[in-house]
Design goal:
The protein folds into 3 domains: 4-103, Rossmann fold, CATH 3.40.50.20; 132-201, 2-Layer Sandwich (Dna Ligase, domain 1), CATH 3.30.1490; 207-449, D-amino Acid Aminotransferase, Chain A, domain 1. The chain has helices spanning 11-23, 40-44, 63-73, 89-97, 107-114, 116-126, 141-151, 177-192, 249-265, 297-304, 308-316, 396-409, 419-426, 429-433; strands spanning 4-7, 27-33, 47-52, 77-79, 101-102, 155-159, 169-171, 197-201, 207-215, 221-233, 236-242, 270-278, 284-290, 333-340, 342-343, 349-350, 353-354, 357-359, 366-370, 377-378, 385-393, 411-413. Helices cover 32% and strands 26% of the residues. By secondary structure, the protein is of the alpha+beta class. The protein has an 8-stranded antiparallel beta sheet with strand order 13-12-9-10-11-14-21-19, sandwiched between helices. The chain has a 5-stranded parallel beta sheet with strand order 3-2-1-4-5, sandwiched between helices. Strand 4, helix 4 and strand 5 form a beta-alpha-beta unit.
Length: 453
């Protein structure tokens, strides 16, 4: 087992990893930028190293500085968390070259799944259902027009190196294609340094359902049930739940088997997530694979009573996976609300600043993952996530009621948060009935969340 793990991340996920390491008897090293010197992950790690000024390019994305911190502290493993360098094949390879265990898949696996066009081709060969579209990166606007005519509108343009909704454009008709093509290329180049685009048939009124998988170094791959991540804005998730209110037993079995097939196709090692789009007719299609721990991993942890970070570390240390595929237990439902420092009444505009008062909810079936506290200053340089509120209960109806109670108890003063949005969402009749798709928030009355209305 590892003696010391350096956590190449910040905020709540860094603190989350520290907690598991401490329970496993593993020492931890936190890295931090000058903007994060007062963050809880810095306080609770065994050692902490400042690696630079606030901009991520000069700190959390600076590979030489991170590897220097590894060398100074004699860490023998590195956990990347999510975001930043978590899916960077070059960084994983540098760790390997230095003899440091990267707690995640191999560089080759990250590379294969990180390029969406290559990932799609790999899944096609493995027999996993994929969305109709281009076979790889589209080389020209002329080729794009030809493919669009072949598969039919609407289509979606996607950055091959992308994520988080950047370089992604929906095209409803031929006369829109050229403008959207140019915009998507510019966005992709600016965000990822790669303007490559591929094309897919746009699935209308889809659900976004992902399957958690785990693979070890011996070729074993299992799935750990699903998470429904359909509630999104600008392709970024706001709420996740499990079991999915839309899946039948048959469909859950089929999607689980497809996810395992996807993992085995690349000999996957570590935890990962296979993401699918599910159309209104019950057909599902591979969308992408995330080769890291997910923000929403606590949903699965609470559903199945598992510590996924611990499982990730054990796999990295060479332990073989025990057990079989896991399905949702009867009389159990879990919902996670992402509490972001954003103003939902103003198109979710970021709201950095000082938290004047902070009180997190308590009680049976409630979990809060956060690095925030009263007096903490939310920096403007990073993701706006400040907490994850997780509720579990014996049914979806009971879980919604429990979550609403917890949201009422959650006090964050000094900055705007998404708490009012979640309260409104959880009382929406269509959400309560489980009748929604990925465009649900587009038609939501967010202006009514403004103060005084």
């Amino acid at each position: 087992m590892f003696k010391k793990i350096l956590i190449a991340n910040r905020g709540e996920i860094a603190l989350r990893i520290i907690r598991t390491c401490r329970e496993m008897g593993i020492n931890t090293v936190a890295i931090y930028s000058t903007a994060d010197r007062d963050s809880l992950h810095v306080r609770f790690a065994d050692e902490a190293i400042c690696i630079g000024p606030p901009p991520a390019t000069e700190s959390y994305l600076n590979m030489p500085k991170i590897m220097t911190a590894v060398e100074i502290t004699n860490a023998d493993a590195l956990h990347p968390g999510y975001g930043f360098l978590a899916e960077n094949a070059e960084f994983a390879e540098i760790c390997r070259d230095y003899g440091i265990k990267f707690i995640g898949p191999t560089p080759e696996m990250i590379q294969k799944m990180g390029d969406k066009a290559t990932a799609k081709e790999t899944m096609q060969k493995a027999g996993v259902p994929v969305i109709p579209g281009s076979k790889g990166v589209v080389k020209s606007l002329k080729q794009a027009k030809s493919i669009a005519e072949e598969i039919g509108y609407p289509i979606i343009l996607k950055a091959t190196a992308g994520g988080g909704g950047k370089g992604m454009r929906i095209v409803h008709s031929a006369d829109q294609l050229e403008d959207q093509w140019n915009i998507a290329q510019q966005e992709a180049q600016a965000a990822f340094g790669n303007s490559g685009l591929y094309i897919e048939k746009y699935i209308e009124q889809p659900r976004h359902v992902e399957i958690q998988i785990a693979g070890d170094q011996y070729g074993n791959v299992i799935h750990l049930s699903e998470r429904d991540c359909t509630i999104q804005r600008r392709h970024q998730k706001l709420l996740e739940e499990s079991p999915s209110p839309i899946l039948t037993k048959k469909l859950r079995k089929q999607m689980g088997e497809a996810a395992v097939k996807a993992g085995k196709a690349i000999g996957y090692e570590s935890l990962g997530t296979v993401e699918f789009l599910l159309d209104k007719d019950g057909n599902f299609y591979f969308m992408e694979m995330n080769t890291r721990i997910q923000v929403e991993h606590p949903v699965t942890e609470e559903l199945l009573n598992l510590d996924l970070i611990k499982e990730q570390i054990l796999i990295a240390a060479g332990q073989q996976i025990k057990g079989k595929d896991r399905l949702p237990p009867p009389k159990m439902h879990v919902i996670e609300c992402r509490i972001n420092a954003e103003d939902p009444a103003n198109d979710f505009r970021p709201s950095p600043g000082k938290i004047e008062a902070f009180h997190s909810p308590k009680g049976h079936g409630i979990r809060v993952d956060t690095h925030a506290y009263a007096g903490y200053v939310i920096p403007p340089y990073y993701d706006s996530l400040i907490a994850k509120l997780i509720a579990k209960a014996e049914s979806r109806e009971a879980c919604i009621r429990k979550m609403l109670r917890a949201l009422d108890e959650f006090i964050v003063e000094g900055v705007k948060t998404t708490i009012p949005f979640h309260k409104k969402l959880l009382q929406d009749p269509n959400f309560i009935k489980g009748q929604y798709d990925t465009s649900f928030i587009d038609n939501f009355d967010l202006k009514s969340l403004a103060e005084g209305e």
